[in-house]
Amino acid sequence: LKRIRTVVAIIAIGLALRRALYPWLLGSCGRNVIFGQNVVLRHPHKIHVGDNVVIDDNCLLDAKGESNRGIRIGSRVFVGRNTILSCKNGDIDIANGANIGFNCELFSASRVTVGQDVLMAAYSYVIGGDHDFSDATRSVLEQARTSTGVAIGEGAWLGAGAKILDGVTVGPHAVVGAGAVVRDDVPPYAIAVGMPARVVSTRTP
């Protein structure tokens, strides 16, 4: 019992220290923000966080870029453990009330926006960029990166393992099925499933 109390005390101290010190690193940080264990912040001066946000254990927030604004997380957002928010000279904007499940990745080489109250289930992948591979004589790494960006409308739901490719807009209140690979826009209130995803029905507003 004594050992358990010691462990609990250490965890509580770590949580308190992170809560006190991490905001000093960020571009801005609201009230009641909880940082889990092993959260990694890269280029933190370009990371802005609202109120009542939870960034769970082992998350990586990387706002890398020379001309980008970086990462902006609204209020009441939950970012699940092991999730990666990665900029390559792009921006990531997550609106109020969004819930990002564990083991997700949001990548942006231009702009990725996640609307208000979006639910993104575990292992979802939003890919706001691509590679030019038109020259077969050169490796993909030697060729340019391209990016149009991705927009997820408010109230949308991405099922577990959904992959949203560059250039796609998922409309407000749309549903993307688990494991779907979305390469074309999904209209508002539509339900899209499959690989590649196709619209199979529409929710009635």
Question: Can you describe what's shown?
Answer:
There is one protein chain. This protein has one helix at residues 2-25, and strands spanning 28-29, 34-35, 40-42, 47-49, 54-55, 60-62, 71-73, 78-79, 84-87, 91-94, 99-100, 105-108, 111-114, 119-120, 125-128, 130-131, 145-146, 150-152, 157-158, 163-164, 169-170, 175-176, 181-182, 190-193, 198-202. The chain is built from 1 helix and 25 strands. By secondary structure, the chain is mainly beta. Helix content is 12%, strand content 34%.
The coarse silhouette is: globular
Describe the strand arrangement of the main beta sheet, using strand numbers. Answer: 2-5-8-11-14-19-22-24-25
Low-confidence stretches: none
| Strands, count | 25
Can you give the helix content as a percent range? 10-25%
Radius of gyration: 18 Å
Q: Let me know the largest β-sheet.
A: 9 strands, mixed
Number of helices, counting only DSSP H or I runs of 4 residues or more: 1
The fraction of residues assigned to DSSP E strands is 25-35%
Order of helices and strands: HEEEEEEEEEEEEEEEEEEEEEEEEE
Structural class: mainly beta
Using brief descriptors, characterize the structure shown.
205 residues, mainly beta, 9-stranded mixed sheet, 7-stranded parallel sheet, 34% strand
Write a brief caption for the model:
This protein has one helix at about 1-25; strands at about 30, 35, 40, 45-50, 55, 60, 70-75, 80, 85, 90-95, 100, 105-110, 110-115, 120, 125-130, 130, 145, 150, 155-160, 165, 170, 175, 180, 190-195, 200. It is mostly beta strands.
